[in-house]
Amino acid sequence: MIKRIFISCLCLVIFGIHAQKPEPNLDKNKPNVIFIYADDLGYGDLSCYGATKIKTPNLDKLASQGVRFSNAHCTSATCTPSRYALMTGEYPWRKAGTGILPGDAALIIPTNKMTLPKLFKQAGYKTANVGKWHLGLGDQVAKDWNGEVKPGPNEVGFDYSFIFPATADRVPTVFMENHKVVALDTDDPIEVNYKEKVGNDPTGKEHPELLKMKSSPGQGHDNTIVNGIGRIGYMSGGKKARWVDEELSSTFLVKAKEFIADNQAKPFFLYFALTEPHVPRMPATMFRGKSGLGYRGDAILQLDWTVGQIMEQLETLGISKNTIIIFTSDNGPVLDDGYQDGAVTKLNGHTPNGILRGGKYSVLEAGTRVPFILRWPAAVKPKVSSAMVCQMDLLASFSNLLGQTIPKNDAPDSKNTLNAFLGKSENGRGILIEQGVKTLAIVKDNWKFIPSNDEKPLDELVNIETGNAKEPQLYNLNEDLGEKNNLANKFPEKVKELSELLNKETK
Ligand code: NG6
Ligand code: CA
Q: Is 338 in the pocket of ligand 1 (CB under 6 A)?
């Protein structure tokens, strides 16, 4: 009798659990989409893009199973504008106030326009944003961080959001779930200020001896110290809510995995915005020292592992085949971006920008040409593509894939290049405008033109060539991807054509 009851219970447990497991989403017309955004990862940072001093096995595997693009771009050489374009389908330089935002900035994405997450929502998807945001929160700079902070990701199309507000080097150093700071003690309210010191927390400037990682001189990372790291901006309060940098990545990973598990039966869109390898680089113990290239290299290993964890979860859930993973970066690479973390001294011959010139902040190719991998086992054959694609075009391309319409004046610059994204065509965009910090360049048929200007050619703070010059520059990217030979004098007609085109496109 007891044996029988035991067997019945066992069956109930086994079949009960089985019955509860949701059917995975296998609808090919509505594949799940996971967009993984690295922060400041360069064209040469992955072994599938030619890196030899660092190994990124998970991304290499992803690339070998999908389309790996050699000519893919973010719109801009810094974070906020690239993310703005990804979300809205509009070139950021068309709108004032889309440069790198302070941590207390107001939301810059219009709430009444089509966005990438709204498009998925309109198509019946569950949408989530996990990771770095950096597109502003609330409707003004002066805001109360202790109540509901909105509008934000939830108002521009995300059903669920688990974010940090700006960058890892900017206050407030807290997580926000939907509209609220996570783990906030109401007796210890948060105050944030970007103009003057608030509260009594030590700053890096006053107490450099308290820092576990030195800030670089003159870069501004010497305000409030959180977790032994000086930040940009001042904050007080919220002691229990402050993140531990070593746990940033795993916290985001857990939240991303939870969202995937909870929504495996529905079509879902996950915007998973990683913090690696942006400063301050403070990888988890298991990655520290592993790359031999300092914390920047270790952060890349952590990033690669994270992507592997997501791939493994999709396999386990049986939804890998019908899930599109897109992996890319929001701008090019930088070594010393505010902290003395060994990125420069331990580089060991690694070339974050590959064969390209420039880097983050630059209008040269390494500013916006980034790794871009798309895997969709159910519908896309592995290949390497040289089609010119841009992250801003995902909005129009997914609207095509999902049969959704975009209101007439929304996403004005987003082009449907779906066939290029899916590796079915080598024809991507015809024209691309690349945004450095001070300059715009134009690319057409692999000819690149940078207008003359008086801005400085080298950003000394980060030791990166900006691409600015007093003479016009013309490069033939087909033969000279490293932008070494300025052909402007040799082909004045090309210069004229592209200069006029740039003026026309940007007016
Ligand atoms: C710069 C910061 C840099 C980094 C960057 C934003 C200085 C001198 N440097 O202004 O450390 O935070 O902004 O990076 O303040 S991004 O990837 O989010 O664009
Ligand atoms: Ca960035």
A: yes
Query: What is residue 241's predicted lDDT score, i.e. its pLDDT?
Result: 98
pTM equals 0.95
CATH number of this structure's domain 438-505, picked from the four choices 3.30.465.10, 3.40.50.300, 3.30.1120.10, 3.30.930.10: 3.30.1120.10
220 Cβ inside 6 Å of ligand 1: yes
Name the fold adopted by 28-185+237-431.
Alkaline Phosphatase, subunit A (3.40.720)
Residue 258: exposure state from Cβ atoms within 10 A (0-12, 13-18, ≥19): middle
**Is 80 exceeded by the pLDDT of residue 21?**
no
C-alpha angle 254/104/299, rounded to 5°? Answer: 40
| Ligand (nearest to CA of 370) | 2
Using most ligand atoms within 8 A of CB, pick from 40, 75, 79 the residue to mutate for ligand 1. 79
Is the C-beta atom of 333 inside 6 A of ligand 1? no
Name the packing angle between helices 294-317 and 57-64 (round to 10°).
50
Map residue 203 onto helix, strand or coil.
strand
Whether residue 277 has a cis bond before it, omega within 30° of 0: yes
Residue bearing the CA closest to ligand 1, atom 4: 337
Residues 6+ apart with CB under 8 A from 500: none
Query: What band does 22 get if pLDDT is binned at 50, 70 and 90?
Result: confident
Residue 358: predicted pLDDT? 98
Q: Which atom of ligand 1 approaches the CA of 169 most closely?
A: 12
CA pair distance 221, 214, nearest whole angstrom? 9
Q: Which amino acid is at 497?
A: E
**38: exposed, middle or buried (Cβ count in 10 Å: 0-12, 13-18, 19+):** buried
Q: How is the chain split into domains, by residue range?
A: 28-185+237-431, 438-505
Residue of the nearest CA to atom 17 in ligand 1? 79
Q: How distant, in Å, are the alpha carbons of 215, 344, 411 from that of 347? A: 18, 5, 40
Owner of token pair 């270790």: 298
Distance of CA 370 to the CA centre of its chain: 11
pLDDT tens digits for range 411-460: 999 999 999 999 999 999 999 999 999 999 999 999 999 999 999 999 99
The pLDDT tens digits for 169-210 are: 999 999 999 999 999 999 999 999 999 999 999 999 999 999
